[in-house]
Specification:
There is one protein chain. The chain has 135 residues and is of the alpha+beta class. It has a single domain, classed as Roll (SH3 type barrels), CATH 2.30.30. It contains 2 helices and 7 strands. The model has no long low-confidence stretch (mean pLDDT 87).
Amino acid sequence: MNAIFDKIEREQLKDNVPDFKVGDNVKVHCLVREGQKERVQLFAGLVIARRGSGVNASFTVRKISYGEGVERVFPVHTPRIQKIEVMNEGKVRRAKLHYLRDRVGKRALQVKTVDPAITKARAKAKKEADAAANK
């Protein structure tokens, strides 16, 4: 019985999910339905939490909008998300960044950033590894 559930769950998983973690700044392109029309809306912010695995995986993104903190929870493998862009990688020492809710102003989204050169080098190495694996 579990094998059937696992097979169904594997079919539901998305292939184009980037590798992102807590502390990263991301842009989430999500489909919004307004009446009969659908459009893509961006939600850019800091990933403060990830939970679950497989089909049940989700992440929480927090941003400051007009001085108010706004959080939104997204399922990772939903068809409503077109793509997730990682803008900056962050270096954090916690699995959940809920303590940022108590902060005000610029400190509310301040996380140490990883050097962009290191990020590019990691991305290049990953592409080379993927290319070698696909041969």
